[in-house]
Amino acid sequence: MKITVIGCGYLGATHAACMAELGHDVLGVEIDPRKRALLAQGQVPFHEPGLGELLAKHVASGRLRFTDSFAEAGAFGALHFICVGTPQRPESLGADVSYVDAAVTSLAPHLRPGTLVIGKSTVPVGTAERLDAVVSAAGAELAWNPEFLREGFAVADTLQPDRLVLGVRSARAEQALRDFYEPCIEAGSPVVVTDFATAELVKVSANAFLATKISFINAVSEVCEAAGADVVDLARALGHDERIGPRFLGAGIGFGGGCLPKDIRAFVHRAGELGVEDAMSFLRQVDDVNQRQRQRVLQAATTMLGGSVTRAKIAVWGAAFKPDSDDVRDSPALSIAGKLHLRGARVSVYDPAAAETARAAYPTLDYAPSAIAAAVDADLVLHLTEWPEFRSVDLATLGAVVRRKQVLDGRNKLDLEVWRDAGWTTRALGRRTPALSPARLALVGPAA
Ligand code: UDX
């Protein structure tokens, strides 16, 4: 099919390249000239495993082109996918839908009758209903088909989504989308057909649920710490319950990124506009628990450094909001690094992919070229984004460059027993320390 993808950021660039891979002819519309020039050369302006290869392949094959012209898009496509961002508004918790509105109103005068406009952006419920009037007036039809891709797995998630949600108003629109996604459906992606409002809500509900799961385990991790229990063992045991499942029970410094934090805030905000804020008010606590994790790390680091971080040298391993990404939007790692710097610590940050984006966001921090370089003369190593390379750092080399052998694992992914065997003092959020905590000692006695 001939399709257009309006907005070629994370979501749009991935959708465009993957749909070309599925055999469609794709025209990407990107108004930022720098991004458009890179994409047209087959280059991805951000870090996403496998996407560069796919993009280059289909720019070369001719199945994927880019333009800034809505007139060209209107003439070209039978299906138009809206993939622009919906960031948090500066003045409130709500989502800024102005890019979605602009994309639809810019496209509308060029739409051919009978074509389909498909929203993929994450929007407050009710947006599709509002835009339907604009699209219908142009003789076209609207559908809503939210995207659930994860950064780092964006290509696989798009080629083989774990579900396709189709918010449609006609059998014709449903059939067009079923035909379009036929390779995914054939390969087993389940399809849920529903109305606009439900399709919009599925997306924010999914992200709110994931955020709640993470904050749940993080809240429990604080109790574990107080009681001398171990949150990693606990999460493993919880995860064996099929009703709960093991994923998104990784306790640590919490969630960040361009989606989870802003989506839960926008959900609360929209619920308020709909007069049901109380129903969603627990999401405020989910957000609070998440922010609290950052404070817990700062406190733990301060304790390890004898009560003050001022003038201490701290190696921060990781800046991206999660591994396999160079995205530092709302990154817990970078936020902690920034706060330590403000409190007078000498912070040296290393991230395998996010140095450039981190430098643009926090220019005053020092950035090192390797994990070892960041740790030279360090009083404390902070493990804040769980890149695999941090788990295989040579502890003898590391031990020789630091000033004090102290490590704090903010992601509960290091094998701290090995570190302790190498002479390190270790700490982690919600983990049993080798010596029993005072509260637990009082309960079980020193012989336990
Ligand atoms: C998320 C959703 O997963 C995806 O479906 C949606 O389309 C966009 O938002 P993404 O932002 O790429 O995807 O990241 P995700 O893998 O969900 O991780 C979000 C954050 O949660 C990261 O900061 C990660 O470190 C953190 N996390 C994840 C935890 O702290 N613990 C966990 O157990 C899992």
From TrEMBL:
Q: What protein name is recorded for this chain? A: UDP-glucose 6-dehydrogenase
Its recorded reaction(s) are: UDP-alpha-D-glucose + 2 NAD(+) + H2O = UDP-alpha-D-glucuronate + 2 NADH + 3 H(+)
Q: Which family does it belong to?
A: Belongs to the UDP-glucose/GDP-mannose dehydrogenase family.
Q: Which Pfam families match?
A: UDPG_MGDP_dh (PF00984), UDPG_MGDP_dh_C (PF03720), UDPG_MGDP_dh_N (PF03721)
Cite a single GO MF annotation. Answer: UDP-glucose 6-dehydrogenase activity
Residue ranges of every copy of the UDP-glucose/GDP-mannose dehydrogenase C-terminal domain listed in the record: 315-416
Q: Which UniProt keywords apply?
A: NAD, Oxidoreductase
InterPro entries for the chain: 6-PGluconate_DH-like_C_sf, NAD(P)-bd_dom_sf, UDP-Glc/GDP-Man, UDP-Glc/GDP-Man_DH_C, UDP-Glc/GDP-Man_DH_C_sf, UDP-Glc/GDP-Man_DH_dimer, UDP-Glc/GDP-Man_DH_N, UDPglc_DH_bac
